[in-house]
Protein 1
Amino acid sequence: MSSLEVNNPKVSMSDQLPSSPVSETPPTAGDKPETVFTVRDLNVYYGDFRAVVDVGLEVYEREITAFIGPSGCGKSTVLRCFNRMNDLIDIARVEGQLLFHDIDLYHPDVDPVAVRRRIGMVFHKPNPFPKSIFDNVAFGPKIAGMGGDLDEIVETSLKGAGLWDEVKDRLDKSALGLSGGQQQRLCIARAIAVQPDVLLMDEPCSALDPIATGTIEELMREMKSQYTIVIVTHNMQQAARVSDRTAFFTAEADEATGQRRGKLVEYDDTGLIFSNPNDERTEAYITGRFG
Ligand SMILES: Nc1ncnc2c1ncn2[C@@H]1O[C@H](COP(=O)(O)OP(=O)(O)OP(=O)(O)O)[C@@H](O)[C@H]1O
Ligand SMILES: [Mg+2]
């Protein structure tokens, strides 16, 4: 099992990593799930604009956690903090604590590239490279210098993403010739090819029809036995269907500045959020009266 690499050998965070962050056996009913991410007092700024205010939550191993809420409430912003994708936005600044197991992901000696290898991401619009199907999946393992048989890694990843049977006879053909739903599954195969522990999915089905959406949802349920998944979705039925826990965010105007800033309103078991939410803002949103 790889560990997060650190630039400064004096700060050996790999010592603090569990040797295998993903437990060997899935939890059985009643077991307390392992915490994968601990978020405390998370604030994200774009320049002077504080987009996300004081978010705190925990994400559990081998669960699907859904982020829901109206547009602009900071779902993508929070999601991008989990694998330091906000680092790629010049004006973004992250404050607070974000632990992956017990590693501080924002410690100056943590290598963001190593973080993204362990914590992969799938975006709302399928974004395959203009390369062959094979090369799309082989790209990450090659760059990461992973050992092993590339043919085997590609096959396993495509099987894991439920795409193998559809593409096994055309691996050398362009990925751009696949349908939207196939392209999204290819992007999932590309993400899992580097053997991450976590998959972050930002509206992965927003560009897909209901059948392709159903395929991806089924895939997510299967993948849960191996991966921890955090999904952002505007589709509340989807959150209710696939997730174990749901976090509802909203955006509220700051009294002093009038700026609309994202807040976590409520985070609980998905069944409870959708049947008996604590906060009236959650209820208004899930019943379609707001947002
Ligand atoms: N790159 C950026 N530069 C400046 N402001 C940004 C940037 N990305 C997001 N924001 C702002 O941060 C706030 C939260 O945006 P974010 O994209 O996280 O919301 P969201 O909940 O994912 O919305 P949606 O559901 O529309 O995708 C918004 O006010 C947005 O305008
Ligand atoms: Mg978003």
Protein 2
Amino acid sequence: MLDRIRNFAIIAHIDHGKSTLADRLLELTHVVSAGKHEEQMLDRNPISRERGITIKLAPVTMEFRIHNSKLIILNLIDTPGHVDFSYEVDRTLACVEGVVLLVDATQGIQAQTISNAYKAIEKNLVIIPVVNKIDLPGAQVEKVKQQIVDFLGIPEGDIFEISAKTGHNVQNLLDSIISSVPSPTASKEGVESRALVFDSYYDSHRGVIAFVRVFSGELKHGMKVRLAQGNRAFEVQEVGIFKPDLIPQNVLDEGSIGYVVTNLKDIHEVRVGDSIVPERSTLPALSGYRRVKSMVYASVFTTDTADYLNLKKALEKLYLNDSSLEFTPIFSQALGAGFRVGFLGLLHADVVRERLEREFGLDLVLTPPQVEYRKEGDQFFEPHVKILIVVPQEYSGPVMQLCEKYRAKFITMDNKNQITVQYDMPLSEMISDFFDKLKSVTSGYASLDWEFADYVPVKADKLEVQLNMEPIEEFSEVVVQERAQEKAIDLVKKLKELIPRQQYEVKIQAKYKGKIIASERISPFRKNVLIKSGKVVGAGDVGRKNKLLDKQKEGKKRMKMVGKVEIPKEAFLKLFNKQ
Ligand SMILES: Nc1nc2c(ncn2[C@@H]2O[C@H](COP(=O)(O)OP(=O)(O)OP(=O)(O)O)[C@@H](O)[C@H]2O)c(=O)[nH]1
Ligand SMILES: [Mg+2]
């Protein structure tokens, strides 16, 4: 049975055509008919579809008969290319024996091509290199093949040239997947069942559904099992495979990829990376994954404070299908009750915000994503990341100059067809406008990959914003010393623009390490709604006069008292969006 199974993934840099290739493979194996499905059909989340990017791994089982002989079962997992979702790639690679490494013929090797290929190499997976999009007029097939030869050290003849769009040469690639991806290795005789959980989601009718790769033994309906690490027992309600919808099966055999309906009600009990073993088994868990960790944090409030509970419910619901989301309740004097939410990166933050607003109809105020500083005694520590930039040689100078400006330290450089350069950079710098600047100094050619490196001691402190001597938490944040002055000046200037005149003078000050390092003032002003263009309106007409005064009152309701200063809610939105 094992020799009929092939488990493989498609990996690549973002947009190089993974999901499009998956479409063609699904057609060739008759899971779907050509022209009868949406493009990139494995991208099922509406935001994924709209933005044209994959944000979740997607498994699917196909069957294929080679040359009228035996039936082969192909388990494909499509992966996201964007760096924020690289954890999905890690999880996928623990379940397969081989990968198709796609490279876009118009782009060449880019940052996630390299980082994802390294992950596959580390796991000793068979790599099938493929140049995609050869149908495009801008395709540079020979040049890109040479890049792959230099990078992987393989003969040029091993590289496939395909068009995932037209399907050109995809049949040959499929044959090669079957012939060169090894079957799963058989476990020793008599070893008990053990399956790795590589993903899970919550179904309101059937409880948690775990995605598994069976490494030994089998799983079937009615088996009494438990989660090896979570130590939670349950009875298997159903097993099945992805087509890509869930299709029940009698049994999930050794080597296969499928799902298990657990009937457990709490997604936290079925942690990704845990193993399912027989209830009485003493087998340890399979080696799982490093834990995901939030990299950037934003405070999230609803514009209407009455919506707080809806926000809470929405976050809890999203969490059921996105265990990388992390949130804790917070309270702001001006913005009310909210949450501090941790994300994998800026794109993840943006996708979550959009889902909260659209799927749950919420209107939100989000502070700009920030990194989390740690403090031991007086010493601050900030997170650093290792970044990898891939860029054509002629841009290496500007790229290196740019990195220096963002407090980055050079690690290494590799100079073959293109430059790949590594830096150690504070995460706070990377999530500022670094990527935009990188794109602009390289005419869009540079690509960037990053991973968390370490917490590093840094001179930093809280930059405290005061309005009329009162500290305002909402505008204050930890800032490194090198950036304190520019940040302070920028912040007080913006606040001066956004805070309307009050009936008394407002002093805006930024305090850092006990000193005021920037300040502005807003002179007092009394807005008289009864005077318009110098003329008194509504004179004599009491009704009109009251209406105007009521309107002013209404407006006041939308104001937030921050300390003793009234600030319109829009000011927060504008400030947070501009930063
Ligand atoms: N002309 C042409 N376009 C292609 C080909 N393969 C993919 N594309 C297009 O490239 C774009 C990206 O394709 P996707 O399949 O979504 O890429 P992906 O690698 O899955 O992207 P992520 O999952 O977001 O990393 C889409 O507009 C595809 O239609 C190809 O062989 N030729
Ligand atoms: Mg995709």
